[in-house]
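Each lists chain and fold; for instance:
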Amino acid sequence: MATDRICVGAISGAFGVKGEVRLKSFCAEPEAIAAYAPLWTEDGGRSFTVRITRAIPGGLAARLSGVSTKEAADALRGTSLFADRAKLPNLPDDEFYHADLIGLDVLDTGGAKIGTVRAVFNHGAGDILEIFAPGRKTALLLPFTRAIVPTVDLTAGRIIVDPPEETEA
């Protein structure tokens, strides 16, 4: 997957019997996902235009180009959808796309390397950084808040963290 695309949603299956899909949007404004089309599969092998038909519990109902049957919609279940980075809005200085954080080195406030960001999760209460730290049996999970993560320097490829005492390696 090229870094010039960002994951903006996923297909969770068919909606109805006429080829509509259940679409989960990862965008701040869920309906905005259609404006970022064409949306691509992770391997870049397929692209879709998107027309949102209505909001449904847990996401959106949508029509995708080239998908006209329930079977075709069901076959796409679990497919992540990616938008070209150039089509996405520029973010304010204190906001970041998750894809830009993954792989960054994580240093403590003294400059010692703690590890590398492996994933960013959000289970509803805010973003959590999963940090892979050599020598640790489990990944380090830190809330992505200004108090814990005072500095993100994308240009230098690093994040400075001030973890609570009990989480330090």
